[in-house]
TrEMBL record:
Gene3D superfamilies: Dihydrofolate Reductase, subunit A. InterPro entries: DHFR-like_dom_sf (IPR024072), RibDG_C (IPR002734), Riboflavin_Biosynth_HTPR (IPR050765). Residues 75-173 form the Bacterial bifunctional deaminase-reductase C-terminal domain. This is Deaminase. GO terms for molecular function: 5-amino-6-(5-phosphoribosylamino)uracil reductase activity. It comes from the Bacteria. It comes from Pseudomonas putida (Arthrobacter siderocapsulatus). SUPFAM superfamilies: Dihydrofolate reductase-like (SSF53597). It holds the Pfam family RibD_C. One of its GO terms (biological process) is riboflavin biosynthetic process.
Length: 186
Protein backbone atom coordinates (compact mmCIF):
# COMPACT_ATOMS: atom_id res chain seq x y z
CA UNK A 1 0.00 0.00 0.00
CA UNK A 2 1.33 3.40 -1.07
CA UNK A 3 0.19 7.00 -0.99
CA UNK A 4 0.83 8.28 -4.51
CA UNK A 5 0.57 11.68 -6.17
CA UNK A 6 -0.38 10.77 -9.76
CA UNK A 7 -0.83 13.70 -12.12
CA UNK A 8 0.08 15.40 -15.38
CA UNK A 9 2.01 18.63 -15.79
CA UNK A 10 3.26 20.87 -18.55
CA UNK A 11 6.96 20.82 -19.42
CA UNK A 12 7.37 24.00 -17.37
CA UNK A 13 5.78 22.45 -14.28
CA UNK A 14 2.13 23.50 -14.22
CA UNK A 15 -0.92 21.30 -13.59
CA UNK A 16 -3.43 23.78 -14.94
CA UNK A 17 -3.67 27.32 -16.22
CA UNK A 18 -4.31 30.25 -13.90
CA UNK A 19 -8.04 29.70 -14.58
CA UNK A 20 -7.79 26.00 -13.55
CA UNK A 21 -8.17 24.86 -17.17
CA UNK A 22 -6.94 21.41 -18.20
CA UNK A 23 -7.81 21.87 -21.88
CA UNK A 24 -4.09 21.79 -22.77
CA UNK A 25 -3.93 18.19 -21.58
CA UNK A 26 -6.54 16.39 -23.67
CA UNK A 27 -4.98 16.71 -27.17
CA UNK A 28 -1.63 15.28 -26.02
CA UNK A 29 -2.52 11.60 -25.95
CA UNK A 30 -4.82 8.75 -25.05
CA UNK A 31 -5.06 8.07 -21.31
CA UNK A 32 -5.39 4.36 -22.07
CA UNK A 33 -1.82 4.35 -23.43
CA UNK A 34 -0.50 5.56 -20.07
CA UNK A 35 -0.17 3.66 -16.81
CA UNK A 36 -3.53 5.09 -15.67
CA UNK A 37 -5.68 1.97 -16.32
CA UNK A 38 -3.47 -0.25 -14.15
CA UNK A 39 -2.86 2.58 -11.66
CA UNK A 40 -6.56 3.23 -10.98
CA UNK A 41 -7.23 -0.50 -10.47
CA UNK A 42 -4.84 -0.43 -7.49
CA UNK A 43 -6.43 2.68 -5.91
CA UNK A 44 -8.67 2.21 -2.86
CA UNK A 45 -9.19 5.86 -1.82
CA UNK A 46 -8.73 9.29 -3.38
CA UNK A 47 -7.80 12.73 -2.01
CA UNK A 48 -8.42 15.90 -3.97
CA UNK A 49 -8.41 19.60 -3.29
CA UNK A 50 -11.41 21.82 -3.75
CA UNK A 51 -10.13 23.28 -7.06
CA UNK A 52 -9.88 19.79 -8.56
CA UNK A 53 -13.33 18.87 -7.27
CA UNK A 54 -14.86 22.11 -8.53
CA UNK A 55 -13.24 21.55 -11.95
CA UNK A 56 -14.98 18.15 -12.13
CA UNK A 57 -18.29 19.79 -11.16
CA UNK A 58 -17.88 22.59 -13.74
CA UNK A 59 -16.78 20.20 -16.48
CA UNK A 60 -19.18 17.32 -15.84
CA UNK A 61 -20.11 17.24 -19.54
CA UNK A 62 -16.50 16.95 -20.71
CA UNK A 63 -15.72 14.37 -18.00
CA UNK A 64 -18.77 12.37 -19.06
CA UNK A 65 -17.71 12.51 -22.73
CA UNK A 66 -14.21 11.30 -21.83
CA UNK A 67 -15.19 8.61 -19.29
CA UNK A 68 -18.88 7.82 -19.78
CA UNK A 69 -19.96 9.37 -16.46
CA UNK A 70 -19.77 12.78 -14.77
CA UNK A 71 -18.15 11.18 -11.67
CA UNK A 72 -15.77 8.48 -12.95
CA UNK A 73 -14.49 7.19 -9.58
CA UNK A 74 -15.86 4.25 -7.62
CA UNK A 75 -13.40 4.80 -4.76
CA UNK A 76 -14.33 6.78 -1.66
CA UNK A 77 -12.99 10.32 -2.11
CA UNK A 78 -11.92 12.94 0.42
CA UNK A 79 -12.24 16.53 -0.81
CA UNK A 80 -10.12 18.97 1.19
CA UNK A 81 -11.86 22.31 1.54
CA UNK A 82 -12.65 24.98 4.08
CA UNK A 83 -15.87 25.88 2.25
CA UNK A 84 -19.26 24.19 1.85
CA UNK A 85 -19.35 22.58 -1.60
CA UNK A 86 -22.19 20.81 -3.39
CA UNK A 87 -22.16 17.04 -3.61
CA UNK A 88 -22.25 15.28 -6.95
CA UNK A 89 -24.80 12.58 -7.58
CA UNK A 90 -23.23 9.13 -7.47
CA UNK A 91 -20.04 10.34 -5.78
CA UNK A 92 -18.87 8.81 -2.49
CA UNK A 93 -17.37 12.04 -1.14
CA UNK A 94 -16.28 13.09 2.35
CA UNK A 95 -15.41 16.74 2.84
CA UNK A 96 -12.36 17.29 5.05
CA UNK A 97 -10.33 20.23 6.29
CA UNK A 98 -7.40 20.78 8.59
CA UNK A 99 -4.54 18.35 9.07
CA UNK A 100 -4.20 15.81 6.26
CA UNK A 101 -2.98 13.16 8.74
CA UNK A 102 -6.42 12.61 10.28
CA UNK A 103 -8.09 12.16 6.90
CA UNK A 104 -5.18 10.01 5.69
CA UNK A 105 -5.81 7.51 8.49
CA UNK A 106 -9.46 7.31 7.39
CA UNK A 107 -8.37 6.91 3.76
CA UNK A 108 -5.95 4.10 4.64
CA UNK A 109 -8.76 2.25 6.43
CA UNK A 110 -11.18 2.78 3.53
CA UNK A 111 -8.56 1.73 0.94
CA UNK A 112 -8.45 -1.72 2.56
CA UNK A 113 -4.89 -2.56 1.53
CA UNK A 114 -4.99 -0.71 -1.79
CA UNK A 115 -3.22 2.54 -2.66
CA UNK A 116 -4.25 6.08 -1.76
CA UNK A 117 -4.25 8.50 -4.71
CA UNK A 118 -3.48 12.16 -4.08
CA UNK A 119 -5.18 13.42 -7.22
CA UNK A 120 -4.32 17.06 -6.78
CA UNK A 121 -3.64 19.75 -6.66
CA UNK A 122 -0.02 20.38 -6.04
CA UNK A 123 -0.47 22.13 -2.71
CA UNK A 124 -2.51 19.21 -1.35
CA UNK A 125 0.19 16.74 -2.45
CA UNK A 126 2.79 18.97 -0.79
CA UNK A 127 0.79 18.91 2.46
CA UNK A 128 0.86 15.09 2.41
CA UNK A 129 4.62 15.29 1.78
CA UNK A 130 5.10 17.75 4.64
CA UNK A 131 3.28 15.31 6.95
CA UNK A 132 5.60 12.45 5.85
CA UNK A 133 2.72 10.58 4.21
CA UNK A 134 3.65 10.71 0.50
CA UNK A 135 5.42 7.63 -0.92
CA UNK A 136 5.54 8.23 -4.69
CA UNK A 137 5.11 10.94 -7.29
CA UNK A 138 4.04 9.77 -10.74
CA UNK A 139 3.88 12.61 -13.25
CA UNK A 140 3.21 12.60 -16.95
CA UNK A 141 5.09 15.56 -18.39
CA UNK A 142 3.25 16.93 -21.42
CA UNK A 143 4.92 18.36 -24.49
CA UNK A 144 3.52 21.86 -23.92
CA UNK A 145 4.46 24.91 -21.87
CA UNK A 146 1.90 27.10 -20.13
CA UNK A 147 4.11 29.95 -18.92
CA UNK A 148 2.12 30.28 -15.69
CA UNK A 149 -0.56 28.45 -13.76
CA UNK A 150 -1.05 26.04 -10.88
CA UNK A 151 2.34 24.55 -9.93
CA UNK A 152 3.01 20.81 -9.93
CA UNK A 153 4.51 20.82 -6.42
CA UNK A 154 4.85 24.18 -4.64
CA UNK A 155 7.60 23.06 -2.27
CA UNK A 156 11.35 22.96 -2.41
CA UNK A 157 12.62 19.37 -2.51
CA UNK A 158 16.37 19.27 -2.62
CA UNK A 159 18.56 16.26 -3.23
CA UNK A 160 18.10 13.57 -2.12
CA UNK A 161 14.34 14.30 -1.84
CA UNK A 162 13.31 12.03 -4.71
CA UNK A 163 14.69 8.90 -6.37
CA UNK A 164 13.76 8.28 -10.01
CA UNK A 165 12.29 4.78 -10.36
CA UNK A 166 11.27 4.87 -14.03
CA UNK A 167 10.93 7.06 -17.13
CA UNK A 168 8.62 5.95 -19.94
CA UNK A 169 7.76 7.55 -23.26
CA UNK A 170 3.97 7.64 -23.80
CA UNK A 171 3.23 8.32 -27.46
CA UNK A 172 4.68 11.60 -28.68
CA UNK A 173 2.93 13.76 -26.09
CA UNK A 174 4.16 12.55 -22.70
CA UNK A 175 7.08 11.30 -20.67
CA UNK A 176 5.91 9.46 -17.55
CA UNK A 177 8.25 9.75 -14.57
CA UNK A 178 7.91 7.78 -11.34
CA UNK A 179 9.76 8.92 -8.23
CA UNK A 180 10.04 7.42 -4.75
CA UNK A 181 9.79 10.10 -2.07
CA UNK A 182 12.56 9.88 0.47
CA UNK A 183 11.24 10.57 3.95
CA UNK A 184 12.37 13.48 6.12
CA UNK A 185 13.61 15.54 3.15
CA UNK A 186 12.43 19.16 2.85
Amino acid sequence: MKTQYYTSASLDGFLATEEDSLEWLFPLGDINQTSYPSFIEAVGAIAMGSSTYEWILRNAGTVSEQTGTAWPYTQPTWVFTSRKLPTMEGANVTFANGDVGTAHAQMIAAANGRNVWIMGGGDLAAQFHDAGLLDEIIVQIGSVTLGAGKPLFPRRLLSPGLTLLSATMVGTGFAELTYRVLKNCH
